[in-house]
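Budget justification, computational time. The allocation requested in the original proposal was used primarily to generate structure tokens for proteins on the priority list. As evidence of use, we reproduce two of the resulting records. The first is shown immediately below.
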Amino acid sequence: MGAFMTTTDFGGELISFKLDGIEKIHQGEEVRDDKGKVYWKRHAPVLFPIVRKLKRNQTIISGRTYEILQHGFARDMEFEPVTKLDHFHSYVLKSNKYTMARYPYDFELYNTYRQEENKLIFIYKVINMGMTNMPFGLGSHPAFKIDPDDLKIGNYYLEFEQEEKSVHFLYLIDGLIGTEYAKNILINNKIILLNNHTFDNDAIIIKGIQNKVISLKNKRTKKTILTMDFTGWPYLGIWSKEGAPFICLEPWMSTADRINSSNIFVKKPDMIMLAPGEEFENKFSVEFFN
């Protein structure tokens, strides 16, 4: 079984993973609809120092208001390559004048990708290089190729490895988290059916998952497309666009602001807090099948 990954300095992003020559990652700007419009220009960006959206795209840090756009700035910045071997690619983004104007902390963010046969491991590490405590959010946003016709017909579904009886689905209002939960769409506590209307109200966001292994499957072919193990990540985001040939499965440490947010960054739920010199590392893996 031959597998090959490609990454880029821009965003320190994974842009391709081929298994026996078959592409598994959404190809961004190369993929267009019937009118020539790009569905989504990205592949598998890192989300830092926030996940999803801030209220009014603003937050208050040490009494000063900063603007941070959805999913943060890291995905749109040039990373420095650290290591690039056949099966191990690592990049770093270091704080600079641009980042400090949006997020006033000294940091190093490492994106690392390790390939083990048909498995791809995403590893993220954040180091507080400053002299004060540093709060941040972190997430990943990989997009996996699917057949849009199979999605339209409803042949794809997601299945948790075990029954999930304690999950909650978050309700989005203009990209922010509402005060009430959304409808639980799990079938038999395990399955989420996917079709063109699954994301009519934006992404699906799930918290409270106990066994963090989920598979993407196809009813027509009776095959498993991939299996993700996101142990250690409290949220899972699921997203696509109508008619698009991809599905995003997104492990997150945090999520969007609540609609009643105070806008104070340190009071944002689920922030990771690092003391000076401390580091945080987390990973998840995706096993692909043909």
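The second record produced under the same allocation is shown here.
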Amino acid sequence: MATAVSLARKAAGDKNVGVSGSQIVQQCLQAGLIDEIHIELAHMLLGDGIRLFDNLAGCGIDLEKINVIDTPDVTHLHFRVIR
């Protein structure tokens, strides 16, 4: 995973690199490769699927809230990962 993120950062130059998919996000969080987290929280519970923050036991990841925007259909959450 670290190699893929490193290659993506090199290719992106001064642009941001995004990762998505719960398992990839979990792996990147565990490896310390995530600087910020943007979550678009729809106001609906589906009840199925892979949880975004599952499998992170023992990681102790601290977040700093940067911004929260609440709209009628979605809540936008923006956090910085504290190292």
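A brief technical remark on that second record: Residues 2-82 form a domain with the Dihydrofolate Reductase, subunit A fold (CATH 3.40.430.10).
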